[in-house]
């Protein structure tokens, strides 16, 4: 007599969120790095309260500054993700961050084939100090990088809006602008709303509506 196969119920599908955060030396001014650290704590805490059988929010934070890229928060379930305050120092190796993001997206052991479309978030207050056009093209041409929902924030007057627009790669998409440090936190409230609305929707692969509240001034 053949044995009945064990019935298994599939768990929630991963919904990856990858943040590329500029932590170069210029982020030390005007309270920007402090606001970024607080914003990341608040976003992760908000994600912890999301409990859906359809989608499991997973978060990775890639920081770039000081000539290197760090996986400050390795890709993990938002329910268990934590944040340690990050210092700001050095240059802006954004090209290396694009390459690291592409490598993570294409790593099937980290992000399985059943995962929902990822969200990529980029924020920077300056210009890349390494070659970025080639790595960005590789990211956008990759299967998952090209399909990802992308959001971008330019911080202060020196942010390279051309690079941020190229990252979005969509003439109708908007680069958000933070003229004051407090607006970094407002931007991440918007990111949080975008991701959580996807996790709760009937089809988390559908593009979310991203609209900043008027009082947020982004």
Automatic annotation (TrEMBL):
Residue span(s) of domain VWFA: 16-191
Name of the molecule in the record: VWA domain-containing protein
Species this protein is from: Corallococcus sicarius
InterPro entries listed in its UniProt record: CLCR, VWF_A, vWFA_dom_sf
Family matches, as Pfam families: VWA_2
């Amino acid at each position: 007599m053949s044995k009945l196969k064990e019935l298994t119920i599939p768990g929630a599908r991963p919904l990856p969120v990858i943040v590329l955060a500029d932590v170069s030396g210029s982020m030390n001014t005007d309270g920007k790095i402090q606001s970024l650290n607080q914003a990341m704590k608040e976003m992760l805490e908000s994600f912890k309260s999301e409990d859906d059988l359809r989608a499991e929010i997973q978060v990775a934070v890639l920081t770039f500054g000081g000539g290197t890229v760090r996986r400050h928060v390795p890709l993990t379930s938002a329910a268990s993700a934590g944040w340690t305050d990050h210092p700001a120092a050095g240059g802006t190796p954004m090209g290396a961050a694009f390459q690291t993001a592409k490598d993570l997206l294409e790593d099937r052991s980290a992000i399985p084939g059943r995962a929902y479309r990822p969200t990529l978030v980029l924020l920077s207050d300056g210009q890349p100090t390494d070659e970025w056009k080639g790595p960005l093209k590789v990211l956008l041409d990759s299967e998952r990088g090209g399909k990802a929902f992308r959001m971008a924030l330019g911080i202060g007057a020196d942010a390279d809006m051309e690079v941020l627009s190229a990252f979005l790669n969509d003439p109708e998409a908007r680069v958000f602008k933070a003229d004051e440090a407090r607006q970094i936190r407002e931007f991440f409230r918007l990111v949080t709303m975008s991701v959580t609305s996807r996790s709760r929707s009937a089809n988390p692969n559908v593009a979310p509506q991203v609209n900043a509240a008027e009082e947020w001034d982004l």
